[in-house]
Design a protein that fits this description.
The structure is a homodimer. By secondary structure, chain A is of the alpha+beta class. Helices cover 32% and strands 29% of the residues of chain A. The termini of chain A are far apart. The A-B interface holds A 3-6, 68, 70-75, 95, 97-102, 109, 111, 113 and B 3-6, 68, 70-75, 95, 97-102, 109, 111, 113. Chain A binds a DNA duplex through residues 180-182, 197-200, 202-204, 218, 220-227.
Chain lengths: 248, 248
DNA sequence: CCAAAAGTGTTAGACCTACACCCATGA
DNA sequence: TCATGGGTGTAGGTCTAACACTTTTGG
């Protein structure tokens, strides 16, 4: 059984080509149709799909999420959605807020609890949901057409990420296990949408004691090879515990 | 019509006797009973009240809130709840998060969208809901027994307030229109739960340009009368706009 | 004149910002 | 040897933290 009026959506952020990306999907109309007509609990919800042609169109994309099952814990279910889409456990996942404006989904009343997740897109293959035609990363600055208030939800999630990143060393989740300081800096620049001073950035980040020098270097780069760092999970957890601040 | 599985609860904070207080209520069992049995849409929800005797007991208190009507906007409805309880419009109101653990309300599945509000308790009389036996302020450090996961909700709201207060000049909402710097400082000390240095506090707060000297003073105090200040709404709004930081 | 809270400045250290050049690598 | 990005230190200004005494008022 599902809660007819509650859905859970995940804004999945990844860092690709030095841009923040979001994972969006499109349904396969026939499969969706079939699913909706054969599933009793989606009977009433069918109207959303009938009345909103964008949902079946190639031009519109949506967030990954579904209605909340009665027997699922809210946070736990967000995790499951993520697991299903990315194959990943142990992802950084945070509730953004709940969207409950009256006409946010035309012709049907749903409130949507939005979460955001941070993952490193290089690490895992995307899994197509059985109902999906495609799943795709989009640069946050050139989003496609999106259904409903998805743009608003992504915007709020991004805002939350920007706040969060200033006080928690959250950004690490977006990078590969071993990364260069330049990558780290670029990530912060992209998230915060401002240039940072390289020398000051390095001083600050290194003073946190969060970085482990892996003693490795980049290879096959046409310039001086950068050192690779990983980050110290224990100190990370300790810092999170203490509710540090981390203004860059 | 109401959404059977969605409720909206307000954690209403006030500042009384140099303590943070929360507004809680108790239902009048007979009236509640009658309401539930005569109201069709609460038919299914009755089970919550039947299976949870604490709801009818004198010893247990709850947050102010109800199920979300189908035709009500989420944020708007939180405002209405507040209006009904306190008679106040234009209250500082912020969504905290949505609680959706499985057994948070025994024998029924509800997710609760929690808001917190800041008001100055001296300014308005509490209005009893028609179903209420009593409504009362409780010092946050000596809460009574509360139903369900209300303690958790209050805790999370308080945490959010503590975060919020460090980056937005939010605390003003808790004070009377004209206040002394000592009152302001005490408020911050209580919210942040730590002592602040008076001289440093005054320097900092006065440098923000947010305070208006009303040229008035306390009267009838057995010590040097303190200046009364009010705060400059225009600058306040401007600062909020700019997303300032306000670490005390 | 006493009790009680209001009000006020300075200094040392920490932190932040701005800024420019040499280094290592592969092509 | 060139192009590309990696890597480094210092000085000036701002912000923060610590700290103690005098003033005003009513009783």
């Amino acid at each position: 059984m599902i809660l007819q009026n509650v859905s859970v959506d995940c804004v999945i952020f990844g860092f690709k080509n030095n841009k923040i990306n979001v994972l969006l999907w499109q349904a396969e109309p026939e499969l969706l149709e079939k699913f909706l007509t054969t599933s009793k609990e989606y009977e009433q919800i069918k109207i959303i799909f009938e009345k909103n042609p964008a949902l079946k169109s190639d031009d519109y994309w949506g967030l990954i999420g579904t209605h909340l099952p009665t027997e699922e814990d809210l946070d736990g279910y967000a995790k499951k959605i993520l697991q299903t889409a990315t194959g990943l456990d142990n992802v950084y996942l945070k509730q953004v807020k709940t969207f409950g404006a009256l006409q946010r989904v035309p012709h049907y009343r749903v409130i949507t609890v939005a979460y955001y997740a941070l993952i490193n897109p290089d690490y895992h293959d995307l899994k197509l949901s059985p109902l999906a035609k495609s799943v795709k990363w989009f640069d946050i600055d050139s989003l496609p057409n999106v259904i409903f208030d998805v743009k608003d939800i992504i915007g709020k999630a991004l805002k939350k990420l920007r706040e969060e990143v200033q006080y928690h060393p959250v950004g690490f989740h977006l990078l590969p296990e071993k990364f260069t300081l330049t990558q780290l800096q670029t990530m912060y620049e992209v998230i915060l949408d401002k240039k940072l001073d390289t020398r000051n950035f390095r001083k600050k980040i290194q003073n946190m004691g969060l970085l482990i020098d892996t003693k490795e270097k980049q290879t096959n780069v046409a310039h001086r090879a950068a050192k690779l760092y990983s980050f110290d999970m224990d100190i990370y957890r300790q810092l999170v515990e203490e509710g540090l601040n981390f203004r860059i």
